[in-house]
Amino acid sequence: MEHILDKDVERVLFSEEQLRQRVAEIAAEIDRDYAGKEPLLVSVLRGSFVFMADLVRQIHLPCTVDFMAVSSYGSGTSSSGQVKIVKDLSEQIEGKDVIVIEDILDSGNTLSYLLQILQARKPASVRLCTLLDKPSRRTKPVQLHYAGFSIPDYFVVGYGLDYDERYRNLPYIGVLKPCVYEGK
Ligand code: XMP
Ligand code: MG
Fold first, then answer.
1. Burial, 66: exposed, middle or buried (Cβ in 10 Å; 0-12, 13-18, 19+)?
2. Domain extent for 35
3. Where is each Phosphoribosyltransferase domain found (predicted)?
4. Would you say the CB of residue 162 lies under 6 angstroms from ligand 1?
5. Catalytic residue from among 106, 133, 162, 164
6. pTM to 2 decimals?
7. How far is residue 84's CA from residue 106's CA, in Å, rounded to a whole number?
8. Of the bound ligands, which one is closest to the alpha carbon of residue 109?
9. 60 in helix, strand or coil?
10. pLDDT for 34-77, tens place per residue?
11. How far apart are CA 158 and CA 91, in angstroms?
12. Separation CA 139–CA 134 (nearest Å)
């Protein structure tokens, strides 16, 4: 660890090397599953930008990318069922094989809503790929095709994930020290 922000991290959950390895495995699965096709990878901003950038560079198939931003009206660290599209896709997805790229699947509220919106646009297929999964927090069932790591209910930061917009630039995924939330 060598960032000023390291002092706020209780422990490293996934190192750069572990992330690199797992991302390469997911890319290999996608290469195998989409052979002969040209998937469109849709990154859900902002948390998934680092995962997306690493993942596409390990995918050997032709693929395209697009970005979407949603805001979820929730309090604190949980999201509600109310989701607003802040930035929509730039391209049409009708007839395309879409893979939604997320940083973390938690309650499932955001994703179940987003998948509904995308399905209505008549893509050939939609699959979900998330780097992290917190299954114990799920309140809305979501079908998950590619998942990097399943984790307990820790609040994690780094590798794109933030607390209060900070820590996204940490190259590993770590558990935030409770004192960072306390006094807030
Ligand atoms: P839902 O509950 O809709 O929410 O599945 C998913 C979104 O919640 C955020 N989230 C986290 N962000 N560390 C974070 O930095 C976490 O441990 C965490 N858990 C949930 C995240 O924005 C995700 O897209
Ligand atoms: Mg997110």
1. middle
2. 16-154
3. 18-163
4. yes
5. 106
6. 0.93
7. 17
8. 1
9. coil
10. 999 999 999 999 999 999 999 999 999 999 999 999 987 655 55
11. 29
12. 11
Is there a domain that residue 25 lies in? Answer: yes
**Structural domain includes residue 179:** no
Q: Is residue 34 part of a domain?
A: yes
The verdict on whether 106 is a catalytic residue reads yes
Sequence-ordered strand ranges (E) for 48-159:
64-72, 83-87, 97-105, 125-133, 146-150, 156-157
Instruction: Please tell me the residue having the least CA distance from ligand 1 atom 22.
Output: 47
CATH of the domain at 66: 3.40.50.2020
Could you state, in chain order, the average pLDDT of each consecutive group of 10 residues for the chain (184 residues)? Answer: 88 98 98 98 97 98 97 63 88 98 95 94 98 96 97 96 96 95 72
Beta carbon of 133 within 6 Å of any ligand 1 atom: no
16-33 and 49-58 are packed helices; what angle lies between their axes, rounded to 10 degrees?
A: 60
pLDDT reported for residue 115: 95
